[in-house]
TrEMBL record:
Protein's UniProt name: Shikimate kinase
Annotated binding of Mg(2+), by residue: 14
Gene3D superfamilies: P-loop containing nucleotide triphosphate hydrolases (3.40.50.300)
Reaction(s) catalysed (UniProt annotation): shikimate + ATP = 3-phosphoshikimate + ADP + H(+)
Enzyme Commission identifier(s): 2.7.1.71
Recorded superkingdom: Bacteria
Organism: Orenia marismortui
UniProt keywords, alphabetically: Amino-acid biosynthesis, Aromatic amino acid biosynthesis, ATP-binding, Cytoplasm, Kinase, Magnesium, Metal-binding, Nucleotide-binding, Transferase
Task of the protein: Catalyzes the specific phosphorylation of the 3-hydroxyl group of shikimic acid using ATP as a cosubstrate.
Pathway assignment: Metabolic intermediate biosynthesis; chorismate biosynthesis; chorismate from D-erythrose 4-phosphate and phosphoenolpyruvate: step 5/7
């Protein structure tokens, strides 16, 4: 069984994913890192030179490939939900958990990260709020949802383990 973490950027998918994988003795997969391996360029470069559609194509290809294996914790990119097929791939081999946080906390967590091409705008907080609203329905593709705004990494991991125990 795989545990796939979805949610907007800055909700803790990679940080929590690493620690959860260690705790479960699972392999940790960062989907963005897999995309970089496939293409050979950093994500901001992919966006700048080929655009978002090309990036999303790579993301779907990587998701289909990764979903074939078991005993993995998969940290996805925030836009994974933009293509329903990606969620089907992830659900085919395990549990999908949505990590959420407030727009303000997401802004705080991402403001010093230069690897966020979609936030390279004049008002990143407004962009975060707009994108969260646009994706809200798509993120509701799983009944497993955890708000990370006020929880520690350990508390989120405990919640995920409870979800696994009930599956």
């Amino acid at each position: 069984m795989n545990i796939s973490l979805i949610g907007f950027m800055g909700t803790g998918k990679s940080t929590i994913g690493h620690k959860l994988a260690e705790r479960l003795n699972y392999k940790f997969i960062d989907l963005d890192e897999e995309i970089v391996k496939i293409d050979g360029r950093p994500i901001p470069t992919i966006f700048a030179e080929n655009g978002e559609k090309y990036f999303r194509d790579l993301e779907s290809k990587a998701t289909a490939e990764i979903s074939k294996d078991n005993n993995q914790v998969i940290a996805t990119g925030g836009g994974i939900v933009l293509r329903p097929k990606n969620i089907e791939y992830l659900k085919s081999k395990g549990i999908v958990v949505l990590l959420e946080a407030s727009a303000e906390v997401i802004f705080e967590r991402t403001q010093h990260d230069n690897n966020r091409p979609l936030l390279e705008v004049a008002d990143p907080l407004a962009k975060i709020k707009t994108m969260m609203e646009e994706r809200a329905d798509k993120y509701n593709c799983t009944e497993h949802q955890i708000d990370t705004t006020a929880l520690s990494v350990e508390e989120v991991i405990e919640e995920i383990i409870k979800i696994m125990d009930n599956e």
